[in-house]
Design brief:
This protein has five helices and no strands. The protein is an all-alpha fold and 125 residues long. The longest helix is centred in the last third of the chain and has 42 residues. The two termini are 36 Å apart.
């Protein structure tokens, strides 16, 4: 069953915003991972502001649970020195991107609705 344009366009905008956020997270992850600066990981703090409140909630609720701790331990075991880097990629990559998908889709739907109401008003007048 095909989606109506009223649903399809906002979903496309939301998916685009979410994908851009994931790509930004991957670029930051790679730059921190391959940096020789010991303080490179501090760039993730910008995501607390960018992804508020989803990023903060994800860190608070999921940052130290068993699977996340196991992932960080595994990351150290295979020879990586940036354990918090993988945690930030997972949490901000999933929850921040989901937040930006939702925000962008809602804004696109609201604008689409507003423009259609405005357009109908001009047709009548």
């Amino acid at each position: 069953m095909p989606l109506s344009p009223a649903i399809k366009k906002p979903l496309l905008v939301g998916a685009s915003a979410g994908l851009l956020h994931v790509l930004l997270c991957v670029v930051v992850f790679a730059s921190v991972q391959f940096s020789t600066d010991g303080q490179a990981g501090f760039v993730w703090f910008a995501f607390f502001a960018l992804d508020y409140p989803a990023g903060s909630l994800a860190y608070e609720l999921l940052g130290n649970i068993g699977p996340m701790t196991a992932l960080i331990d595994w990351w150290y075991t295979i020879g990586n020195s940036q354990g918090p880097n993988i945690r930030a990629l997972v949490l901000f990559g999933i929850f921040g991107s989901l937040q930006w998908f939702i925000v962008a889709a809602l804004v696109a739907a609201a604008l689409q609705r507003l423009l259609s109401i405005r357009h109908r008003g001009k047709e009548r007048g």
